[in-house]
């Protein structure tokens, strides 16, 4: 099998995988653990001893600006709650599509596995660094599973001292990075390390669970799995946030809202991209077909948008409603109420129409009588040109079979309609028959789709357009039409 054919078959798999993974991420994002709401429900205490063991609480206190802990490539960090070490390597990136392979050199978080990177090895690694314990006021806080919402700031290499390990690697500070040069003329294999950290605030608020006078993570809502890791949903409540309780809660609310919108944007884009990959694969099969190929190629992105966006939005909406049951219940209640109101209004209109028809025909009409009269009006419309063509006869026969009539009754009713049409006065018109037909159709409960289609078929054949028919139905529904004498 040719390589480009393999690539196309791969697209049939990769496209749906990306779409499903993105939709799963969007769903998980909408149903994620809301650490802001959990934090807002915690009990505020003034001292660690006031927190009941096993309960969630918050405590505001001062922090040590001289908080110090060691790093792997540098001796220590001072004045940071946590430090992120980002290591990159300069190597070859291979980008392949159906037509060709494109090579480029770029900074990457790890060495891409390809033929040009066989001799490149990365020595520096990325990680997060933090002390073994924090203190918020008099409260000791476990650093395990700790999380933050405050912004990271760049740490200048000039403010740091290399450790023995960093010196042995021959790291050199340059601008905002520590560089590791491999001595190649094209810089291939060179590495760089960048540090960012969250400064220790003067005052911070802790949100978490109390255990033996310490702050530990509440893992009762813990989330696991690859998707939850990608969207940063641990399900834990174990946060240190700068400021008093009110300020900290505002920061947490802003952080989770921002995080949700980022995932929504990226997830929606991924659904569209997955749809585009799948669509492009089929375009590849059609590419060599004259006329169809170029059209399909031009329209694939538009189709991806038309399919991908509604899928993503539907997933977001479904996840949002699933995580907000009260809103879902309110919407369902509203829908039920609207349906009930429409039904009651329809029943009231039906009763009024039925009373008018009883008065018009001089007695209380049974269901069978109304169906007979409905058929007569339909047939008299068909006889407006004094003859019954094949199409009109077919419509009348279908109507009769649907209502359980045999051919004898159908023929007799058609003959009766023909005789009535021949003896009617000049004042009677097609408008009168159409209006009465609609009234009879609506008086037995509601105007069904089949009845509307039947009325339209016959009415169009004698010159009525859709607009006129809709206006007539609306007039009857609103009670504007005038009853036709029996």
Automatic annotation (TrEMBL):
Its main location: membrane. Signal peptide: none annotated. GO terms for cellular component: endomembrane system. The keyword Protease does not apply. Pfam families: TMEM43 (PF07787). The chain crosses the membrane at residues 9-27, 261-287, 299-320, 326-342. GO terms for biological process: lipid metabolic process. It is found in: Endomembrane system; Endoplasmic reticulum membrane. The keyword Cytoplasm does not apply. InterPro entries: TerB-like (IPR029024), TMEM43_fam (IPR012430). It comes from the Bacteria. SUPFAM superfamilies: TerB-like. It is a multi-pass membrane protein. Keywords: Endoplasmic reticulum, Membrane, Transmembrane, Transmembrane helix. This is Dna-J like membrane chaperone protein.
């Amino acid at each position: 099998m040719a390589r480009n054919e393999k690539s196309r078959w791969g697209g049939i798999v990769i496209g749906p995988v990306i779409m499903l993974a993105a939709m799963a991420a969007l769903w998980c994002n909408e149903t994620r653990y809301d650490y802001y709401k959990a934090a807002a429900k915690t009990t505020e205490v003034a001292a660690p001893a006031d927190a009941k063991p096993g309960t969630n609480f918050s405590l505001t206190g001062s922090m040590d600006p001289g908080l110090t802990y060691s790093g792997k490539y540098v001796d220590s960090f001072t004045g940071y709650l946590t430090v992120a070490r980002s290591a990159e390597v300069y190597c070859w990136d291979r980008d392949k599509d159906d037509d060709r392979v494109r090579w480029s050199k770029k900074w990457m978080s790890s060495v891409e596995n390809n033929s040009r990177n066989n001799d490149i090895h990365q020595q520096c690694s990325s990680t997060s660094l933090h002390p073994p314990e924090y203190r918020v006021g008099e409260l000791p806080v476990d650093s395990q599973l700790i999380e933050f919402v405050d912004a990271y700031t760049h740490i200048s290499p000039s403010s740091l001292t290399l450790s023995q390990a960093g010196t042995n690697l021959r790291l050199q500070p340059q601008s905002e990075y520590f560089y590791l040069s491999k001595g190649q003329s094209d810089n291939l294999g060179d590495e760089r390390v960048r540090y960012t950290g969250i400064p220790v605030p003067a005052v911070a608020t802790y949100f978490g669970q109390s255990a033996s006078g310490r702050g530990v993570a509440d893992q009762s809502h813990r989330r696991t799995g690859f998707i939850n890791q990608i969207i940063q949903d641990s399900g834990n409540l174990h946060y240190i946030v700068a400021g008093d309780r009110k300020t900290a809660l505002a920061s947490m609310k802003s952080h989770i809202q921002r995080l949700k919108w980022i995932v929504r944007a990226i997830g929606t884009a991924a659904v569209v991209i997955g749809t585009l990959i799948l669509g492009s694969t089929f375009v590849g099969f059609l590419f060599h077909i004259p006329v169809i190929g170029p059209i399909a190629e031009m329209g694939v992105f538009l189709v991806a948008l038309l399919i991908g966006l509604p899928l993503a939005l539907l997933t977001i909406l479904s996840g949002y409603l699933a995580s907000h049951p009260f809103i879902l219940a309110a919407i369902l209640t509203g829908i039920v109420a609207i349906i009930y109101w429409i039904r009651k209004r329809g029943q009231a209109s039906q009763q009024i129409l039925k009373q008018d028809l009883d008065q018009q025909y001089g007695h209380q009409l049974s269901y069978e009588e109304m169906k007979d009269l409905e058929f007569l009006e339909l047939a008299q419309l068909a006889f407006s040109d004094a003859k019954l063509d094949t199409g009109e006869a077919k419509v009348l026969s279908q109507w009769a079979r649907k209502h359980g009539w045999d051919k004898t009754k159908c023929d007799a009713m058609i003959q009766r309609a023909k005789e009535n049409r021949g003896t009617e006065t000049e004042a009677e018109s097609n408008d009168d028959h159409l209006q009465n037909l609609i009234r009879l159709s609506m008086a037995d409960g509601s105007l069904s789709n089949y009845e509307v289609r039947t009325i339209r078929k016959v009415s169009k054949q004698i010159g009525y357009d859709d607009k006129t028919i809709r206006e007539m139905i609306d007039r009857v529904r609103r009670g504007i039409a005038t009853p036709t004498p029996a």
